[in-house]
Structure formats: structure tokens, C-alpha cells
Design brief:
single chain, 197 residues, mainly alpha, 47% helix, elongated
């Protein structure tokens, strides 16, 4: 039984409706996958949310402990002794990094960190007896060992990968160009050929 040439051709997929691309990109930054859900691309939205959030959450788990506080690898600091450039990558995760901004604001204004030091920046300066969760960067490295760096990398990679997901929500999926046959290169498109005759 021979197959006809038409049966081997793949039918074109329906176009993706991007709705408002700017809003989709913003939603994808706010919560990974949310922009895709807004566009009706449910499978892709769920995939991005599950993969990126699990990577980010695992990095937060690695970068903390009961005694140091959880998610200590995600923090905002811009001091002479500690310029946290990794936060520029981590902020790509959007809303999940908001506690770090709140904690940095509290510490900068001389207030105690909330939530047992969750995403609080490490201390710069001498230790304080009234703040058991106020640990220095050296102390965090000493207590968490290599897990501090691993947690930092996991959360930064999740943020950078979400930037690609944001771009996908804003610009849409990459569609392959239609292949041109060798004979049809010089021929006019069907619409144009009908108009000319």
C-alpha cells in the first residue's frame, strides 16, 4: 500500500493568539507561567511554573537551615563589602523575590528582619546580641558550607530561565518558515497569480 505525497505533509498548526503581549510578559515575570496561562497556553504555563518554581524553591531550601533561617541566598544588598549581583538574576522570578526587597528595606531602616530572617540580607558590622537571626555573610558561609553557593546558583538560574519564558510570553513561540520548493521559487504566490490572470 503506497502513501500519497499529501498524506506525509503536516497540517499547519493554528496561530497562537498572544492577546496583549506586554501584559503577558509582565504576568510571566510576576509569576512564572502566568503570562502563558493568560494567553491560553495552559500546558506551557503549567510546565514553566512547575519547572522554574521547583528550581527556585530547591535553591531556597539549599541556601538555608533552621538555625540560619530559610532562603538566605536570595537577598538584596548593595554595600561596599557585599554587592549582591546575583540578585539581578534572581529578581527575574518576580513576585517570589518580593520578601527580599521588604527585608532589605527593613534592615536598611534599622529594623529587625521579619519571618525568622527569611530572605534577609546578612549583617555588615559587629554582631548584635538582640538579633539572633542577624548573621554575617561569613557566618552564613561557615554554617551552610557549599550549599550557600549551590542555593545561590539554583535561584539565579531559575531567574534567568524565567527571562526566556517572559520573552516567549511577549513575542510568542518561534514558528518555522514555510519551506520553498525548488520549482516554486520563481512562481508568484497563488493569490497574486490569480489577480494577474
Amino acid at each position: 500500500m503506497s502513501r500519497s505525497p499529501q498524506s506525509s505533509e503536516v497540517s499547519p498548526s493554528p496561530p497562537v493568539v498572544l492577546k496583549n503581549p506586554v501584559l503577558a510578559g509582565f504576568l510571566a515575570w510576576l509569576v512564572p507561567g502566568l503570562g502563558h496561562l493568560y494567553q491560553g497556553r495552559i500546558a506551557k504555563g503549567v510546565l514553566f511554573f512547575a519547572c522554574l518554581m521547583s528550581t527556585y524553591a530547591y535553591g531556597c531550601y539549599l541556601g538555608g537551615s533552621r538555625e540560619t533561617g530559610w532562603a538566605r541566598v536570595v537577598y538584596l544588598a548593595w554595600h561596599e563589602d557585599d554587592k549582591r549581583l546575583f540578585f539581578l538574576c534572581q529578581v527575574g522570578m518576580g513576585l517570589p523575590t518580593m520578601p527580599a526587597v521588604i527585608q532589605a528595606s527593613r534592615v536598611r531602616n534599622g529594623k529587625q528582619p521579619l519571618w525568622n530572617g527569611f530572605m534577609a540580607p546578612p549583617r555588615i558590622g559587629p554582631p548584635r546580641d538582640d538579633a539572633p537571626t542577624d548573621l554575617s555573610l561569613d557566618e552564613l558561609h561557615r554554617r551552610l558550607h557549599m550549599y550557600f553557593e549551590l542555593g545561590t546558583l539554583y535561584t539565579a538560574i531559575a531567574g534567568l530561565l524565567n527571562v526566556l519564558a517572559i520573552y516567549d510570553a511577549w513575542a510568542g513561540p518561534v514558528m518555522p518558515e514555510e519551506e520553498k520548493s525548488e520549482e516554486g521559487k520563481d512562481e508568484a504566490p497563488p493569490d497574486r497569480a490569480q489577480k494577474e490572470s
